[in-house]
Amino acid sequence: MIKSNRVGKGIYIIVILISISICLLGIRSNGKKEQQRKIEHIKSTLKDETVKINQLNKQISQFYQNDQEEFLADRIKEDELKDIQLNINTLKTEADDFGVEKKDFTADTSEVRQAKEELVAKIEDIKNKKNIQNQVTALLMQKPTNWAANNEEAIIKESTTAEKILKIRHSVSKAETQWNQAIISLLDEMDAQVKQYKDIEQSIDMMEQDGVLTSNATIENVILIFNQLPQIKNETLKKDLSDKLDVIDTLLEKEETTESLEEQEEVLGSE
């Protein structure tokens, strides 16, 4: 009887051990299946990310004038730019993005990661160019119709100064791209206009101080400066200089009239 009980207990223990083994094997099998499902999910997601990257590149290309992706398109909506940037940020490249632990993450996401970095760089390029163009436009009478064209039509505002232009110049990178060269050329033109105005203004100021003419106030200098006025593209600035020159011219005429009267009086007095 005792022997029978021992046999029964032994069989019971064996059954339990077998059951536990089966459970462990089942758990391990399920774990492998779950891991395999995760791997397949990651592979599928990476394919989807590649498709999304291609779509984002197409969307970004619309912000440029052509396939060279150098000069910006005329109108760029801020909300569209933000939406694309948000979609770029959601691209999955790390273990956490796929909901797995880093030690279990074996997928190669290098291509997606590199593509994501390139997309981020493109967005930053667009934002930087847009910001600089806005700063330049703020110093001009009107926005350039074509940033890639020559800058003959550019006319500075009355409030434009060399310091403001220099500040923008410092924010332009040293890279020798077509866009950079075009912006630098435009800034050079703006600098030249500021200098032209300042030089002429200084020449006029040197002819008059506190309403009194100086030795620089001659009819020859007035004519010389008058002939330089057409170089000033801003009509308000040109009128400002012209008005100052008119004051000098009026003072010269008065001076000549006074001298003429004095000479006549001297002649009459000598008679």
Brief summary:
With 271 residues, this protein is mainly α. The protein has helices at 2-61, 78-89, 110-137, 162-171, 178-205, 219-228, 235-270; strands at residues 208-209, 212-213. It folds into two domains: 2-137; 152-261, no CATH class.
Structural description of this entry:
The structure is a single chain. The protein is mainly α and 271 residues long. The chain folds into 2 domains: 2-137; 152-261, no CATH class. Helices cover 68% and strands 1% of the residues. The chain has a two-stranded antiparallel sheet. The longest helix is centred in the N-terminal third of the chain and has 60 residues, at 2-61.
Give the neighbour order of strands across the main sheet. Answer: 1-2
Helix content: 55-70%
Percentage of residues in DSSP E strands: under 5%
| Mean pLDDT across residues | 85
DSSP strand tally = 2
Rg over CA atoms: 40 Å
Instruction: Return the domain count.
Output: 2
* Helix-strand makeup class: mainly alpha
Major sheet details: 2 strands, antiparallel
> Cα distance, first to last residue?
172 Å
Order of helices and strands: HHHHHEEHH
Dominant shape? rod-shaped
Q: Give the count of helical stretches.
A: 7
User: pLDDT under 50 segments (min length 5)?
Assistant: none
Coiled coil: 39-66, 109-136
Transmembrane segments: 6-27
Keywords: Coiled coil, Membrane, Transmembrane, Transmembrane helix
